[in-house]
Amino acid sequence: MKVYKYILIIALVLLNSCTSENKFYLDKEKYNSDFFIFGWYSNGAPNKENKSINLAYQSLDDLSNAKFNTLLNYDLNLVDNKNEIKDFLDYANTKNIKIIYPLKEFYPFINLSIGYNKKILRYNGYLDSLKLFNSKDQNALINNIILEFKDHPSILAWYINDELDLNKAENVKNVSDIIKEIDNHPTFQVIFKSNEISRFKDSADLFGFDYYPFWYDNVNTLEYMSKEMIKVNNLVNDRPFIFVIQAHGAYYFDKFWKEGLDCSKLDCTPKNDEENLKFTLGREPSYKEEKAMTFLGIIHGAKGILYYNYFDIQHSPNFKRRWDEFGILSEKINNLMPIILSSNANIIKSKNNEIESIVKFYDNNYYIISVNKENKKINAFFELKIKPKKIIDLDKGEELELKNYRFNDVYKEYEVKIYKISN
Predict the structure, then answer these.
(1) How far apart are CA 112 and CA 298, in angstroms?
(2) Given its phi and psi angles, is residue 105 left (phi above 0), alpha (psi -120 to 50 degrees) or beta?
(3) For 33-37, 292-296, 385-389, 411-415, which range has the lowest pLDDT when averaged over its residues?
(4) Residue 315: pLDDT band by 50, 70, 90 thresholds?
(5) Looking at the predicted structure, is the pLDDT value of residue 138 above 80?
(6) In the beta sheet, which residues pair with residue 383?
(7) Per-residue model confidence as pLDDT tens digits over 1-44
(8) What CA–CA distance (Å, rounded) separates 151 from 419?
(9) For tag attachment on the chain, is the N or C end more exposed, with fewer CB atoms within 10 Å?
């Protein structure tokens, strides 16, 4: 494995039967503790003369209050001068929010001379927005931005690929190489086709995968998503894997194709959860589905979780309730963070195929994090390799009966359970 001294070291701790861990290190001189990326994508230009400032800064306030730690704002470059970006980064730092900086538009094959991309050219000195943008300009633009902000304490990584086509893999790698010449922060890319991962694997330091099981239909269940994550993690086994989770619904947008219906003309917005679940296409996930997807990501080795997208979910008719639910989920993840970042262990001999699980070893106890990936009730069993003193369901605070190294439990659809196994 090639060692990137400036980005990440995956720690392999041999403790009892422990193996790999859900953590990675970012430049130990700047980050003195383990850091699990836990945050959101969003939009909103941090332009003080633009009313969208309310969204840009609101996202930092809301994420901070909900105890998330990372933001990737697509529109960070859409400003008139770099001071507006610096002010935004300064504010993020006061809120303990790390920023994944977007550089995904800076390719010669992307037309920066149209639409909102004009601002990117303007504040970087490309005043003639009709000027041909070539590879030389690309290098200058990237250098300009990185040299300006690389030492800011809120910078976490550089985002260089947002679902680009397979034939652009070499372009992405070139940008990553340019960045590495002048900065130590990792580069980050996201792919949504698992069959393209091998081609993109060496194009960036951090590897994101986004799969939205409720975007197109309800057939591609969490079971299929779980299989995709296993495939991804196996293919990028020497690089940190960040799981991007669907939080939005397709019906938020003006045009939504559902049996030929155009939601810009027809009312396609569900008014409540019951109506939302009736949608065969484009619905937003429920809270139990968000929770299940989050813990499936952790189970399958994700070194970070990003939800998509804070800007989009504000179009939800249930935004306030949903954001409160994400706050509850965030509190749970943060409370479990020492366990999530601890070493993996292998104490399960057998279990149901419908139940996905991972075992952690923390503070002289084992913890089983488990998810029912099926949309139905499961009578589950776990057969252990050890005989513990006690098994506690952490959510219920109840002790489970152990018989011959085996215990049973009932899972509701998409239910998450965490057990404490005392030696």
Answers:
(1) 37
(2) alpha
(3) 33-37
(4) confident
(5) no
(6) 350, 406
(7) 333 333 333 332 222 334 446 655 555 444 434 789 999 999 98
(8) 42
(9) N
Could you give the domains of the chain? 18-249+284-343 (3.20.20.80), 346-422 (2.60.40.1180)
Instruction: Please name the helix (run of DSSP H) or strand (run of DSSP E) that holds residue 306, with its range, or none.
Output: strand 304-308
169-186 pLDDT, tens digit each: 899 999 999 999 999 999
User: What amino acid is encoded at 115 in this protein?
Assistant: G
Strand partners, 416: 371
Task: Report the relative pairing of strands 365-372 and 416-422 from DSSP bridges.
Answer: antiparallel
Three-state SS for 243?
A: strand
Largest CA distance in the chain: 76
> Is the Cβ–Cβ distance between 253 and 215 less than 8 Å?
no
Cβ(160)–Cβ(188) below 8 Å: yes
Q: What is the mean pLDDT of the chain?
A: 82
CA distance between the termini of the chain: 36
Using the CB atoms, write b or e for 314-328: b if 16+ within 10 Å.
Answer: bebbbeeebbebbee
Q: What's the pLDDT at 6?
A: 33
For residue 316, give every residue at least 6 positions away whose Cβ sits within 8 Å of its Cβ, in sequence order, or none: 248, 249, 252, 284, 322
- Nearest CA to 330 out of 350, 315, 310, 351 is that of 310
Choose the weakest-confidence range: 95-109, 254-268, 330-344, 401-415. Answer: 254-268
Write the DSSP assignment of 179-216 as a string of letters. Answer: HHTT--SPEEEEES-GGGHHHHGGG-SEEEEE--TTTS
Nearest to 302 by CA among 5, 10, 3, 4: 10
Helix (H) / strand (E) containing 224 = helix 222-235
Burial code (b: 16+ CB inside 10 Å, e: under 16) for 94-125 equals ebebbbbbbbbbbbeeeebeeeebebbbebbe
Give this prediction's pTM: 0.87
